[in-house]
Design brief:
InterPro entries: SUF_FeS_clus_asmbl_reg, Tscrpt_reg_Rrf2, WH-like_DNA-bd_sf, WH_DNA-bd_sf. One of its GO terms (molecular function) is DNA-binding transcription factor activity. One of its GO terms (cellular component) is cytosol. It comes from Acetobacter vaccinii. The protein is mainly alpha-helical. It has 2 domains: 6-66, Orthogonal Bundle (Arc Repressor Mutant, subunit A); 85-149, no CATH class. The protein is built from 7 helices and 2 strands. It has helices at residues 6-20, 27-34, 38-50, 75-83, 108-121, 125-129, 136-149; strands at 54-57, 63-66. Strands 1-2 form a two-stranded antiparallel sheet. Strand 1 and strand 2 (63-66) form a beta hairpin. The chain starts with 5 loop residues before the first helix and ends in a 5-residue tail after the last helix.
Length: 154
Amino acid sequence: MLKLSRLADYAVVILVRLGEMEGVTTSPSLAAETGVPEPTVAKVLKALSGQGFVLSQRGAKGGYRLARPLAEISVASVITAMDGRIALTACVDGGGCDNGVSCSLCGSWDAINHAIRTTLEGISLENMRLNDKGFMPRARNGVQGLATLIGEGT
């Protein structure tokens, strides 16, 4: 099963909610708004701040705000920030593989991984916020390309 980490999932939720709020917002406020435990919100915000997704403001009126609009943040970029590069197997994108030369699938996973990554890059957090089905044709093209690649689209 392909599954996002809980932190990547929370990061998307937190960023979308942050994008819906005016001005700066505190970690406890985001926790109350999203239902994500406050220590987890703080951990996610620290990671997102370090990756340039959010800006922090210190002081009595401090908090967090988006560094750029939701429309400019892709789902893929958030996953990568929280979990590292999107890779379905160890051998994707030239990564290490114990079987290497003897594996008949060597290189095949790259195309599948690319299709998934490209699809996720085409979906912005604004699409997610709006529950915008308009992103689906772009995503569907990636999935159709994937189906063709694995022989189910013919």
